[in-house]
Amino acid sequence: MRAALFQMTSGIDPAANAAAIVEMVKRAKGEGADMLFTPEMAGCLDRDRKRAADTLRSEAEDVVLAAVRDAAAREGLWVHIGSLPLKGERADGRWANRSFLIDDSGAIRARYDKIHLFDVDLATGESWRESSVYGPGEQVVAADTPWGRMGFSICYDMRFPDLYRALTNAGATILLAPAAFTVPTGQAHWHVLLRARAIEAGCYVIATAQVGTHADGRTTYGHSVVIDPWGDVLLDMGDAAGLGLAELDLTRIGDVRGRVPALANRRMIPKDVTIS
After folding, report:
1. pLDDT at 126
2. Is 155 a catalytic residue?
3. Cβ distance 170 to 140 under 8 Å?
4. Model confidence over 241-253: pLDDT tens digits?
């Protein structure tokens, strides 16, 4: 499998972001890619929630999703949109942070809403409440593709191994982790978390990231990566936007799982803990 990763610096204008992705669909096809992967919040990255509320649309009306579906069909290329922020999708009024798997006919094969939301109160007095705007997903999602079963996650999800245990129990061999990591947490945790997810699961990990300084003023870490089941980094795109390519040897999954049969040896852990 030849994977193309689009490391983006998404802005606050969905139409401009859509045009950038469409151009990369065409370019990825020209490079011989089988599938294009984009980061989290590919359609709009805006921390001004009032302004974003005027920009965002429902899935049925989202200009980015429509444009990418058209491009995928035109070029005959599979696309994974890391995520789009959508409104009008939940009964509680909160927005959805949703991934899409689009096949080479432009059809949507799978959707995944981010399960784990970042809520924290820092000693500095800063407070982040992702759950005040976004509602959590409630389903673990894996989907079949011509290159194997892909398991879905988004950004903060990567800190919760139980999600990946569920995905590998369901037969996933390629784990997707699109993200918009901040620079400090990226420098500290990005590579080690993703390599751990690949090693413990004996899976490929494809993690496409936002990068650089965005129109809303935030800065993201970049370093989109492809990691093989042994934990080797096959691609690291550093801190520049653009297209990266990686070859996935799918026979490597069986080879690694045969050498370290962690999945076969895995047992259910009792819920009760004995404290002495």
Report:
1. 64
2. yes
3. yes
4. 999 999 999 999 9
